[in-house]
Design goal:
five-stranded antiparallel sheet; four-stranded antiparallel sheet; 17% strand; single chain
């Protein structure tokens, strides 16, 4: 008993006697202002572009909080807090000495610390510095309280406390607590609700009303009784508040745009964050992605991702990173930000670069077997998806049909380094390796890019060639774009990608990408069917879709049109139908620097009367071909067998027909495609004795060519290909080397000669005429 008395006397002596000296010292060393300004409890509060909540994420301290000025906090909360925690708050200077004396007596009787007599200012000190509930720590809290009182006035102390106090369920501060438990601002709290919250900081875990409603109710009644006893509320208000049932917001609102908000967490400070997300579109996109993956899961498609951009501002209107964010098996992975091979989705930018140079949609590009040697000495032999070759193709058609061989040939023509640099400028920054790392395969999407980057690149075309940098926060100004393509070149590409007749030729008459309204669309499929892509744009929006598997497992031969196309089409139609009065997208309109040209679809030249069809294409002004087509020629044929008719054929058996007379590079292709093969032999029914050739030209090799014999390979496998063109065609060509016949070949006059060491002279002989010698 004597020992307890001594402890109480010591406490009173120290607080009462030495307290004056400590308080005087506190005024000489007030609490640091910087520490009061720091606040780690702030959470991330994301909203859609119209202010609707998307998600609240814990802040740096792992709690949910939102700093609120005292003027914006309900007076009921302030009154309830002071009544329960510190009724003489405005009368003491940080330490309530009468309360200390009372607490000392209680502790003396209990033999332990059961009452600390902590003022609200002392509690604030504990929140800031984290002291324990011991006699010694109480002295420290008292000193902190005096230092706080030296720095802040009473209103500032109240604001600090009400924003830092814990209220349970991860909520720090009265505003976060009001939103968590009642889903409304603290200014809208009733007296009963204010009293409930004011009582929670005493024991936020054990008084959590979501887990222990009875305890919370008991604490609420205590606070209401204190308010009545102090005259803060009258008897009627007390009675009504006691009887008011509290209805708690049991669950937080369902979050949306989790992948986008996760992305922003890494680069955005806590607080209120207004995103660019269109919540209606976002929720619809999330639903469509989940349904699409479920429908195609049998084909090995396990995930999908979507990005929708506003073309004018480059705002991200929707971002879905997976089929189900909450799926523990990788659902939180963001497929919109994962680098993957885009396949043919990069072809439009190769052709845009070509159209900006010396080519046009009317230029002819060869879809014939070709091989290239890259910087590493590896041979590339591009193949089309169909495993077939189309021969001569207009560049516009080659893009619309997504042919691989012409795309590689075009990339080689415009220059690999320029292709890679253009792709980067268009927004594909993941292509950060030297151009030689990718080789010409970059035209077929062998480099990895993200879906968001691909959306930016397609939006560049939609914006008339001005680059697009995606914006996800409304507080950031739209990024200034740079000119990548001219409006004229952008239109040429858009016009081709919006041509549904070309889409039919590429994917068939029944395919999901026949939308029925103006939209430029391109698909892509990576090697071994691992990734499907579909990207496109209207005048207002850009949509990009990826489907596949996060682990990189190949799908069951799903192409971009099937794996990603249906989801793309659903999103496109959804965008078109948005709004109270849906407005169809505007058609792509040619700018003044573009003109229409009528061309022969085989040669790209001005059509003649011999061309069976003509095609209208858009080209840059002044680029319309003027040279008449020479690829269609009239020949005399023997109607009895379809072979060439010599002058000796009776007139009644002779008929003029138009045949395709293609450059020598297409001879082998023509020979394999009967529909395009011209007659090359004279009819035996009327022999062509005396028919001579007007011209014999060797097309390979060329004068001065040097060929190497590769050591270690069989000599029989190392041959030189000999090709020639003869006009008019004759039955065969004789090949001579150094005057000695080495081969005879019928049309297309190709032969192979085994290489050997030395210098040689080559000639072709046909129809009584010799070619110029090739040395």
């Amino acid at each position: 008993m004597r020992r307890r008395v001594r402890q109480a006397l010591v406490l009173l002596a120290v607080v009462g006697g030495a307290g004056f000296a400590l308080r005087a010292g506190a005024w000489l060393c007030p609490f640091p202002a910087a520490e009061l300004a720091a606040y780690a409890g702030e959470s991330y509060r994301f909203t859609a572009r119209d202010g609707q909540p998307l998600r609240e994420a814990v802040g740096l301290a792992g709690t949910r909080g939102r700093w609120t000025p005292l003027a914006e906090i309900s007076p009921l909360v302030v009154q309830a807090t002071l009544a329960s925690e510190d009724q003489r708050f405005y009368e003491h200077g940080g330490v309530d000495l009468p309360a200390v004396a009372r607490a000392a007596g209680q502790n003396l009787r209990a033999g332990q610390v059961v009452s600390g007599a902590s003022t609200l200012t002392m509690q604030l000190g504990r929140l800031l510095r984290g002291h324990q509930r011991t006699l010694v720590s109480k002295l420290g809290q008292a000193l902190l309280a005096w230092r706080l009182e030296a720095r802040l006035d009473k209103a500032e102390i109240l604001e600090q406390y009400l924003n830092r106090a814990p209220y349970g369920a991860g909520a720090v501060g009265i505003e976060a607590a009001s939103q968590r438990y009642f889903a409304k601002p603290s200014t809208h709290l009733s007296l009963a609700e204010a009293a409930l919250l004011a009582g929670l900081p005493q024991a936020p875990t054990t008084l959590n009303p979501l887990r222990f409603p009875e305890r919370a109710k008991a604490r609420q009644l205590y606070v209401l009784e204190r308010m009545r006893a102090l005259g803060l509320i009258d008897e009627q208000a007390h009675t009504l508040a006691r009887a008011e049932p509290f209805t708690l917001a049991r669950a937080l609102p369902p979050p949306a745009a989790m992948h986008l908000t996760d992305w922003l967490l890494a680069s955005t400070p806590p607080g209120d964050i207004a995103t660019t997300i269109d919540l209606t579109l976002q929720r619809a996109a999330e639903r469509l992605v989940a349904e699409h993956v479920a429908a195609l899961s049998g084909g090995g498609l396990t995930q999908a991702a979507v990005v929708v951009l506003d073309n004018q501002t480059c705002d991200v209107l929707a971002m879905v990173g997976s089929a189900d964010y909450w799926d523990g098996a990788g659902g939180s992975n963001n497929g919109a930000l994962a680098p993957r091979q885009p396949g043919s989705a990069l072809k439009p930018f190769v052709y845009a670069l070509a159209f900006a140079g010396d080519f046009s949609p009317a230029s002819v590009v060869g879809d014939i077997p070709t091989q290239y040697l890259d910087a590493r000495g590896l041979v590339m032999r591009p193949r089309n998806y169909s495993e077939k070759f189309a021969g001569p193709v207009l560049m516009g058609e080659a893009l619309g049909r997504s042919l691989n061989v012409p795309a590689v040939r075009t990339a080689n023509a415009v220059g690999l380094a320029d292709v890679v640099e253009t792709l980067r400028r268009a927004g594909l920054s993941s292509l950060d390796q030297p151009a030689t790392h990718y080789g010409l395969g970059v035209a077929l999407g062998n480099g990895e890019v993200t879906l968001l980057e691909l959306a930016q690149a397609y939006a560049t075309l939609a914006r008339g060639g001005v680059s697009c940098r995606a914006r996800a926060r409304l507080d950031l100004p739209p990024a200034e774009g740079e000119r990548v393509f001219s409006p004229e070149v952008s239109f040429l590409v858009s016009d081709i990608l919006a041509d549904e007749s070309l889409r039919v030729r590429a994917f068939g008459a029944v395919n999901p990408l026949l939308l029925g309204f103006p939209m430029a669309v391109k698909t892509g499929t990576s090697s071994n069917w691992r990734d499907n892509w579909a990207a496109g744009y209207t005048d207002r929006h850009t949509v990009a879709v990826w489907t596949g598997d996060f682990a990189g497992n190949p799908m069951n031969q799903l192409s971009g049109a099937i794996g990603a196309g249906p989801l793309f089409a659903q999103l496109a139609r959804l965008l078109v139908s948005q709004g109270a009065v849906p407005r169809p997208p505007a058609a792509f309109v040619a700018p003044p620097g573009v003109e229409q040209a009528l061309v022969c679809p085989l040669s790209g030249l001005a059509p003649t009367a011999d061309c069976p069809t003509a095609k209208v294409v858009h080209v840059l002004a002044g680029r319309a071909p003027r040279e008449p087509c020479t690829w269609h020629r009239r020949v005399r044929v023997d109607v009895r067998n379809g072979l060439l008719a010599s002058p000796r054929c009776p007139r009644r058996f002779v008929e003029e027909r138009v045949v395709e007379h293609l450059p020598p590079a297409y001879a082998a292709w023509q020979a394999e495609h009967p529909a395009h093969r011209p007659p090359t032999r004279f009819s035996p029914l009327c022999p062509a004795d005396g028919v001579t050739a007007d011209a014999v030209v060797i097309t390979h090799p060329r004068a001065g060519d040097v060929f190497l014999l590769e050591p270690g390979y069989a000599a029989a496998t190392q041959t030189l290909q000999l090709t020639a063109e003869v006009d008019p065609p004759v039955g065969e060509v004789a090949w001579e080397i150094d005057g000695r016949a080495v081969a005879r070949a019928a049309w297309p006059y190709e032969a192979a000669w085994p290489l050997r060491r030395g210098r040689f002279t080559l000639q072709a002989v046909a129809g009584g005429k010799r070619s110029d010698p090739i040395r």
